[in-house]
Amino acid sequence: MSEINSIPKEGRGYVIPAMQDFEYDQATALAYSIKTNNKDAKVAIVTNYTDRIPHHYHEVFDHMITLPYGSSETTRCNDWQIYWATPFVDTIVIDSASLVKENHDSVWEFLIDQYDICFFNKAHNFKSELLENKKLQIYKQDYDMDIVYGNMYYFKHDTDLALAYHKLADPFQQNWRDVFAKYFKEQHRPKYYNNDVMHSILNTVILFENKNINNDIINIVNMPTTLSDGNIGMWNRWTDRLNTWTSNGAKVKIQNFAMHTNLYYGEQEFLTEEIFDGHKQAFTSTAKRGD
Amino acid sequence: MDINKHLQAQRNEGINPHYNKRKYYIVFEKESGKIKTISNTPQEVKDTERYMQTESWNPVCKRIIKGKASLKRYGMIWDLVNETWDIDFRSTTLIIESKHNKLEPFREDLDPTRSEIFVKIFYEDETILIEANRNNIRGLKNLSDITEIASSEEKLLDVYITKKNDPDYLISNISVDPLTLFKDGKQLINLPTHINEKVDWNNISLYAKSVFSNYGWALSASAVRNQDYLGTKRILQQNVSDKSNINIRVVDNVAYIDSDIRDSEVYYFDGRTSLKFVVCNNSIDELVGAFEVPVGILLQKESRVNLNFNWPKKPIVVYKNNYITVNTNGATQ
Questions:
Q1: pLDDT-wise least confident of A42-51, A133-142, B68-77, B84-93
Q2: Nearest residue of B to residue A242, measured between CA atoms
Q3: Nearest to B233 among A240, A246, A247 (CB)
Q4: Partner of A102 at 20 to 30 A CA spacing, among A93, A156, B175, B187?
């Protein structure tokens, strides 16, 4: 524990949880995208075995940190450990299946100024239309839960609220099946670990007095919710139906819409070699310009 | 009770199974088999695209009308033997049975979109793709609910490869798992090893037990990974570097098109007379030009089309078709 507490915390930065090989690819592409659009941003990857991260990915990460208390089978089940694993005072946790296509300076300033911990409860589809999140509405209607998205959130280290949140998240995430069974009727229990549902429970329990009433801090295009809302029909994967295009400067388009804020794509098939290489090239040329 | 009347009723029932039974009219959704209304009198069906009406003598209709049985638990099924629609209990078990003991031949010229079971043999890949066309298998409307398959005999859907027009000369048989086939809509199976050494693929026939009415098959050297094969349906397709059924090489603003598409594959174009190609350079935002090729030309092995724009160095060729893949390998300018 003393060793864990000795991880010095300074500045602000992004923490990306990743444990699988494909998540290392995603995390690296995400880190490239963060650093291309956010000069001097610090990025840490948190994983179960740092020696499994391919060597040629190391350059983009400022920190590679091992999960301090072992790991659960599902990557995002380990979110509770990030409080102790983060090397930053101010942390944005971001799912590896994401890309950042905008500058976050003003977002950082607002979050640091206003919040100890902050989850976002708005998401958009690829056309920038607000999503209803029909799948999770049942938890709001029947269980009076505060619905939030778990793919991206902010917390400030050494605050009571963030500590309480992650302390409760520890038993909740480690025993997620029991938690879902305790809270929900059988017909509403997710069969697999659902990070949005888990963080919605934790938000309802811990942050009921500190609800995020300012919903428009950040714009996130959430493709898994776009799919589950039925915006593009019934498909197993949104990539089965929608075209994605990439061009110079790591520009990414879904259908005719350019992604210029934050994209949570959530689908392994999305990150093609072409998109990965595009982000690597953009990062390399940005880094060269910085030098 | 008058015994004579009773015996007469029994005799009548033997002659006419509908004797002394009330006829009901059921309006149901064509796609899902979901029942809309049940009544004693014929109903006017306004939306004939979506709904159809059938007659039924099933006494359960009376129970449903009286509210003694739940409509939600019943659906429409296709009676394979009598070839009529009837109401039945919804179930997660799919019951399949052979109509008779004769083997049903697969037709080589059959349009896959009109078949119920279609088989594609890729002899270079040594694989066979069995497709169940769920839109055409009218009797199996609740396919998404199916978790079990019940059949009166095993190997009901197996495919038999025989010498051409000779079902007695068996070359090989392919075991098909009905559950996978109906759940996924298709099943890719490896052919027996070294089969190419003993089979003359142009001299074979395929047979199956007579569960469905329309069986078709096609022979190809190897699979083209098009949208249909991958089970995806992206709105636009773009050129790939894999093996494709259309290859475009451009020399001096003339596109030389090599096509593997056969006349029997005209269904690829869904009744359209031409296919449009949009050409961009390097990225989708850099439009260079577009050209249109009549389907008749794409059915030829080799053809050429004059272009009115300069072919880019890094072409992105975009088109709308789920069956075709295009590569521009060897494109020069």
A1: B84-93
A2: B234
A3: A240
A4: A156
**Rounded mean pLDDT of A120-145?**
92
Lowest mean pLDDT among A130-134, A192-196, B56-60, B281-285: B56-60
For chain B, what percent of residues have pLDDT higher than 90? 23
- Helix, strand or coil for residue A17? strand
Residue among A43, A82, A71 nearest A59 (CA):
A43
Residues B239, B186: contact at Cβ < 8 Å? no
Q: Report how far residue B138's alpha carbon sits from residue B134's, in angstroms, rounded to the nearest whole number.
A: 7
pLDDT at B303 over 70: yes
CA distance linking residue A221 with residue A252, whole number of Å:
12
Calculate mean pLDDT across residues A152-171: 94
Give A108→chain B minimum CA distance, Å: 32
Residue written as token pair 């051409």? B164
Which residues of chain A have a CB within 8 Å of the CB of B236?
A: 243
Quick check: B241 contacting A, CB < 8 Å? Answer: no
Contact indicator for A63, A44 with CB cutoff of 8 Å: yes
Contact assignment for B234 to A247 by CB distance below 8 Å: no
Report the length, in residues, of chain B.
333
List pLDDT tens digits, range A60-110. 999 999 999 999 889 999 999 999 999 999 999 999 999 999 999 999 999
Within 10 angstroms of residue B301's Cβ, the number of other Cβ atoms is 10
Q: Would you call A247 and B284 a contact, using CB atoms and an 8 Å cutoff?
A: yes
Min Cα–Cα distance to chain B from A230, Å: 15
d(CA B307, CA B309): 6
CA atoms within 13 A on the CB side of A211: 12
Q: B74-79 and B84-89 as β-strands: parallel, antiparallel, unpaired? A: antiparallel
pLDDT in tens, B221-276: 888 888 888 888 888 999 888 778 899 999 999 999 999 898 888 888 988 999 99
Of A239, A240, A245, the CB nearest to B284: A245
Residues of chain B above pLDDT 70, percent: 82
In DSSP notation, B179-243 reads HHHHHHSEEEEEPPTTHHHH--GGGEEEEEESSSS-EEEEEESS----HHHHT---SSEE--SS-
A vs B, Cβ pairs < 8 A, gives 31
> Which stretches within chain A are classed as H helix?
2-5, 21-37, 82-85, 105-114, 134-143, 160-174, 176-183, 195-206, 223-228, 273-290
What's the mean per-residue pLDDT of chain A?
91
CA distance B136 to chain A (A): 20
Say which amino acid occupies B329. Answer: N
Among candidates B282, B268, B283, which has minimal Cα distance to B313? B282
* Enclosing H/E stretch for B258: strand B254-259
CB-based contact, B284 to chain A, within 8 Å: yes
Are B231 and A240 inside 8 Å of each other by CB? yes
**Among candidates A243, A246, A247 on the partner chain, residue whose Cβ is nearest the Cβ of B236:** A243
Residues of B with Cβ-Cβ distance to A251 under 8 angstroms: 283, 285
Interface ipTM? 0.74
Centre a 10 Å sphere on the Cβ of residue B62 and count the other Cβ atoms it contains: 15
How many angstroms separate the CA of residue A189 from the nearest CA in chain B?
20
Closest by CA position to B88, among listed B133, B139, B145, B153 = B139
How far apart CA A138 and CA A144 sit, in angstroms, is 9
